[in-house]
Amino acid sequence: MKKLFLVLVLSLLVVFSFGKTKITFWGFMLDDESSAKILGQFMKENPDIEVEYVQLSWSNGFDKIVTAIAANNAPDVVELGNTWVANFASQKTIMNMDDYAAKEKDHYFGWTSVEYDGHYWAMPWLLGTRALFFNLDLFERAGLDPNNPPETWEELYVAAQKIDALGDDIYGFGMPAGENFSPWQQWFLPAVWGNEASILSKDMKKSLLYSTKVIETAKFYKALSKYSLKTKQADLAKAFGEGKLGMYVSGAWDISGIENNYPNILFDVTLIPKPNKWSGYHASFAGAEVLAITEQSKHKEAAMKLVKYLLKSDVAMQITKLVPSVFPSVVGADKDPWFEDHPMHQVFYEQNKYARPAPSHPQWFKIQQYLTEAIEKMILEDQDVESTLRYYNLKIQQVLNH
Question: What is the pTM of this model?
Answer without folding.
Answer: 0.89
